[in-house]
Amino acid sequence: MPRRLRLKNRKRWIFGAPPAGEITVDEGATAAILERGSSLLPKGIKSVTGNFSRGEVIRICNLEGRDIAHGVSRYNSDALRRIAGHHSQEIDAILGYEYGPVAVHRDDMITR
């Protein structure tokens, strides 16, 4: 199956899956996601709601509470709470491990 078709099917799954939790992001992260199609970095996370595992679909909301995207989290909810607001380079020092520099990769995200 071509990569483009796999990505399309994955994004369709992300769009339809019920979110296991929610994160609220700042204005900079909102603009990066909506205007530039960027991945979500921990620095832009303001709060984490709910308990979810790595690999589950989560809702991404702006500061006004508007649902701006859904995506697959690279970290569980507890880890995201610990790294929220920190630079990506600090993840390993905070957690003792890392699954990459982003909280949600753009290939695993669909904007609303």
TrEMBL record:
GO molecular function per UniProt: ATP binding; glutamate 5-kinase activity; RNA binding
Entry-linked InterPro entries: PUA, PUA-like_sf, PUA_sf
EC number annotated for this UniProt entry: 2.7.2.11
SMART domains cross-referenced by the UniProt entry: PUA
Keyword RNA-binding on entry: no
Boundaries of every PUA domain copy: 21-104
PROSITE patterns (UniProt xref): PUA
Listed Pfam families: PUA
Gene Ontology, cellular component aspect: cytosol
Key word rRNA-binding present: no
BP term (GO), one: amino acid biosynthetic process
Domain of life: Bacteria
Keywords of this entry: Amino-acid biosynthesis, ATP-binding, Cytoplasm, Kinase, Nucleotide-binding, Proline biosynthesis, Transferase
Protein name listed in UniProt: Glutamate 5-kinase
Taxonomic lineage of the native organism: Bacteria, Pseudomonadati, Pseudomonadota, Gammaproteobacteria, Enterobacterales
